Amino acid sequence: MTWLLFLLACGDAPGPAKAPSEAASSASTVRSTAPTHPAAGASWEIGRAATPEEIAAWDLDVDPTGRSLPPGKGTVPEGQALFQTQCAACHGLNGEGGGNGMYPALIGAEPKTGFAEDYKIHKTIGNWWPYPTTIFDYVRRAMPQTMPGSLTDPQIYALTAYLLHANGAVPADFVADATSVPQVKMPTKVQFIRDDRPETTSFR
Amino acid sequence: MSDTPKPPARSRREVLSAGLGALAAGVTLRAAHAEEPVVEAPPSAPPDATKVLGAPAPPRSERSPFAPPPTVLPNGHISGPAFSPIHTFHGTITPTDLQFQRNHGGVASIDPTRWKLMIHGLVERPMVFTLADLKRLPSVSRIAFLECSGNGRNAYRNAKPDATVQHLDGLISNLEWTGVPLSVLLAEVGVKPEATWFVAEGGDASVMARSMPIEKALDDTLVVYAANGEPLRTAHGFPVRLLTPGWEANTSIKWLRRIELVDQPLMSKDETSKYTDPLPGDKARQFSFVMDCKSVLTHPTFPTRLEGPGWWPISGLAWSGRGRISRVEVSTDGGKSWADAELQGTPLPKAAVRFNLPWRWDGKPCRLQSRATDETGYVQPTFREFREARGAGTDFHMNSVRTWEVREDGQVFFVPDPEAA
User: Could you tell me which chain B residue has the CA closest to the CA of A113?
Assistant: First the structure.
């Protein structure tokens, strides 16, 4: 703020105002890196504090540990009923996908191998998805596509329970909640690895 | 006039419904006269423009009626890709309205006066910035390409000879971006040492989110509000998007609204279901952010027909997410021999460069290819090399050399599998 006040204070003074860091040199500099504050480590004092309420209103983030999963629970039968009314029109009655690939298949545990060789194999929750929490995250963020954000947390848990069960990940009496969902072991046989491409030369 | 009775005030709802009624009536009218199609007059110009006073300066310069703009294709879908007509461009900068699009929940409509960017999580001071705030902070302008990680899927899998380069590799754009370095904003909020990843989230109907290592935030990630000198277009994230130069474009979150500093990736939505790359041996690569070095010919390509033997320009675009393009070679014999193409201007890091090679066609059938090398020494792989490393059915990051054949009649076609007999 000191620097900004300095600029303001100099505004009416004769001659161009100069930032302290430029005062010693009359030549412009060509900057090739990110700009830094003229006073190292100082704040620009632009922007305001975020309130806990507005953070809570927007923070949808759930990670594989289940951090920030909301309260509530849902069962497989509840989810199955919801799937028929909320999801099946696009994704198919049995989650087989639709719209000529526009709406991906969600259900199907087989085949579990050969994805790199045959692009026609559908990547489903049952044979591809490595994390159960992603189902809750996906539905809460984006589904159903025509009415995003319209489902309650218990409804999303119910759909999560149904989709996990329909893909062979959990038994029919599974109840989805903040504790149970992160513990589900997904049926995929695919080994997900972090980017292993070499940084520089050679084919990757 | 003061005696004129005022019409009764109407509510906004009434005005809206009246407008909709008129619209519906208009549609009916058009349908009733469907047998009389509107014929637009072809553009005309005076025989000698030096003998006719020109038109007054228009408020905005439109495209010449003799050069109607191409379109992104397909368009009109809520989700999915819209390919840029890269075969119609010259130089390196993409016309702003013809950038490729990939939307996940439609095109969001955001009021900039209500827009805010929230940065929170593992930070000392969670903060909110308005658009006006961003414009007061130090800015950077740089040219960078954006490429969808699925670009090239149509060239690599189930491709057809009569495919345009727009359809095959059109999910690439290259513009000049202006915005605030994310590092500047992170300095304001104070990143805690345990923060190792950050999540960027859009305010669209899919609430699109990607997790990225914090090193990228502190390196060259920008929070941008302008492209090619003007505010972002609606379909490209207005009022503010993220720009992660050199990385797969889905990480350059459009309609940006929130950044959270975290200690591990979220495995959100598309992070595992979509943007993971199948590898042989039932492995899959995830967080393969960097777009590798690639070049594509844009001319001559289908549906171009060379009218006869003689000099024809070979031209295209090359780019690398790991730095500058150092070399582009062109082959006119299907990869047996290579000639250095001319790079137009100075290649910039993580930006597209145009390459050109004048070529004398002898009228015989031949195969054209381009092969780019970046400053790390990486050479764009052949179709065979790529298939051996990644598999015939893989997805994402498909950057192998493309092949086009010129037939005896001069017609140019794509060659889906140059290894096939």
Answer: B282
Residue A60 in contact with partner chain B when CB distance is under 8 A:
yes
Q: How many CB pairs under 8 A join A and B?
A: 206
pLDDT, residue A40, reads 80
Each residue of A27-49: pLDDT tens digit?
A: 666 665 677 788 888 999 999 99
**Structure confidence at residue A10 (pLDDT):** 38
Would you state the CATH architecture of domain B294-414?
A: Sandwich (2.60)
Report the 10 Å Cβ neighbour count for B129.
24
Residues 6+ apart with CB under 8 A from B253: B200, B201, B202, B208, B209, B210, B237, B241, B242
**What are the extents of the domains in chain A?**
1-24+39-46, 63-183
Q: Of A49, A145, A203, which has the smallest distance from its Cβ to B381's Cβ?
A: A203
What's the token pair of residue A99?
């719209």
A40 and B CB contact within 8 Å? no
Mean pLDDT of B166-182: 98
pTM (two decimals)? 0.88
* Alpha-carbon distances of A60 from A138, B103, B130, B269, rounded to whole Å: 10, 20, 21, 12
Q: Is the pLDDT of residue A192 over 50?
A: yes
- pLDDT at position A37: 81
pLDDT category of residue B420 using cuts at 50, 70 and 90: confident
Q: Rounded to 5 degrees, what angle do the CA atoms B319, B320, B326 make?
A: 80
Name the residue facing A128 among B79, B273, B376 (closest C-beta). Answer: B273
The helix/strand/coil state of B38 is coil
Mean model confidence pLDDT for chain B = 92
Best A3, A44, A112 member to test B by mutation, with max B CBs in 10 Å, is A44
Chain B residue nearest residue A103, CA to CA: B79
Pick the CATH number of A63-183 from 2.160.10.10, 1.10.760.10, 3.40.190.170, 2.10.109.10: 1.10.760.10
ipTM of the complex: 0.87
Distances (CA, A) of A118 to A109, A110, B35, B351, B382: 16, 13, 48, 33, 20
